Amino acid sequence: MTEEKAPVRVEISYKTVIFSTLFLIGLWFIIQIREIIILVFLSIILLSALLKPVEWLNSKGVPRVLSVLFVYILVIAFISTVIGIIVPPLISQTSDLVSRLPQIIETINDFLVFHQIPVEDFSQLIARQLQSFAGNLIAISKTIFSSIFLLLTILVFTFYLLLEWKKFVRLISSPFSGKSEKKISGIIIKVEKGLGKWVRGQLTLSVIVGVLIYIGLRILGIPYAVPLALVAGILEIVPIIGPIVSAIPAVLVGLTIAPVMGLAVAALFLIVQQLENNLIVPMVMSKVVGLQPPIIIIALLIGAKLAGIGGAFLAVPIIVVSKIIIQEILTEDQVLEDDLKED
After folding, report:
1. How far is 95 from 91, CA to CA, in rounded Å?
2. Does residue 39 fall inside a structural domain?
3. What is the Rg, in whole angstroms, of the alpha carbon atoms belonging to the chain?
4. How many structural domains compose the chain?
5. Quick check: 336 pLDDT over 50?
6. How far apart are the C-alpha atoms of 111 and 100, rounded to whole Å?
7. Tens digit of pLDDT for each residue in 303-315?
């Protein structure tokens, strides 16, 4: 007769139960406050862009509050100047486009019919798109107002972070003691510096894209090349949708000249976008943040897949922060291992 095997007993200690419960509660809490976490993360990204000039002014004897205010005034003045350069010619060109829109639609429609392209009446297609846009206008307005509120919140929070950055670092590291406290402070400072490099990389990308678009528009003979290139450079910071939105005013300006010119401008933006996605972004970011181009491409794709535009925007800085934290942990483990070997 075969002996019956005793049933396997699985014992779970009370410590495991407590740890699992606390872990699940912590995970639930993080999910509940994810918007606040993202807001803080965005504020730290903005802080990393502004901290160096604030620290420089402060080191020259300018009070901290005045240093922060001065940097904020410079940023606001720069944004206002850019808007002043971009908006007037775009309004003028848009009004010109609206007055010529029926003629442009008719020309495109005749072109499609002449070449027997199986597309429904172009004027009806445009009318339906305009109706759809008008129907979504309320939703678009709500999104714009919520984005403005979010931006103001980030600016205010970043203002206070710039004022009390050292105290903030001490506050985060205060629950720890000894070497652990110094380690946490070091990680926070390195994260800020890493994000600063990423911001500088984004600015470099904006300049490169803006210059490429300007050169292309000048070659095509498109008027208002400077403001249109500025729009393209500024919207470069918005992944996926930024290049598309920046192409719209340029294509409209091209359409006021000729339908073919509008198509040429669209082709220009498409070529620059492909160069940007497959060559410029990986090369610039790999040099600035020390990540290999394939990793950056994969991070952008995963971020876009998980959270759309916001995910693509935050993908690289999240990878940068994760890399710094993992390196610090591995370095600490290596040091402990070496100490044990010496003992």
Report:
1. 6
2. yes
3. 27
4. 1
5. no
6. 17
7. 777 777 777 778 8
